[in-house]
Amino acid sequence: MAAVRRARSDELSGYGIRRLRDKSAREAIIHSIGRDFNLTPILAQAYFSQVSTYFSQHADITLNTGEVCYEAVSAEEPAGKHIALASRVSVRLRLFDPHVDLTVLVERGLAGLRRHRLLRMTREAIDQGALLSYEDLAMLLTTSPSTVRRDARQLRRAGKVVMTRGWKHDMGPGTSHKAQIIDMYLKGYQFTEIELKTNHSEKSVRRYLNDFVQVVALQHQRFSVAQIRQVTGFSERLVREYLELHEHYRKEQNDRLALLVEPACPKKGALPEVTG
């Protein structure tokens, strides 16, 4: 076998395969990185791989008609963190939906259409792990931040939750929106009701429920709050809120809680997806 491999290697060398591979765009970029930053070939290749990952996360996005790509702050960042230090997420937002927006314009006017788009884009952002600020929305909607704040207040008075970075400030030290959604689910609200009341998609609600199950399962395996925070990447505040909710509804012998977490607690393997 060794002789066959050597023969095969000699054959490839005869065709100049290795030299041709070295002439690829990838190798040219790696070579330039190594030269420009005085890096070894291994480090230059590592830099190239990491930059390629960043590009796929932030630039390689396919848009449909009426959509825009926008850099927003990650939803996991605390509200008070300076924007220059916050991690970003590239999100796809529907600026114009011809199947819906024209009808909304006729029925509600320009102000109604603006508020409709505000709700839609904040919901799409949170579904993709980001939060838009009032300034982001003002730029996207070609209006002023004060108008966006006024629209948000009006929508909240109508019972809508407008998911913006400023909304975190508005909440103050109270319960996070994720814990509120879990609380609503355990109280018996259906997915459609939670969607309407919180402006979250069913996808987001299910994701929060699975996160809740993960936290409870880790506690069942005797992980401390600090360990759960490290494993999940959730904030300590959110972990404690989830555990408090679990303890409260466990004492009440809540049927939904039992169906949700009991299958995950006896074992240490993969957690089940929420299906109901």
From TrEMBL:
<dbReference type="InterPro" id="IPR012872">
    <property type="entry name" value="DUF1670"/>
</dbReference>
<dbReference type="InterPro" id="IPR036390">
    <property type="entry name" value="WH_DNA-bd_sf"/>
</dbReference>
<protein>
    <submittedName>
        <fullName>DUF1670 domain-containing protein</fullName>
    </submittedName>
</protein>
<dbReference type="Pfam" id="PF07900">
    <property type="entry name" value="DUF1670"/>
</dbReference>
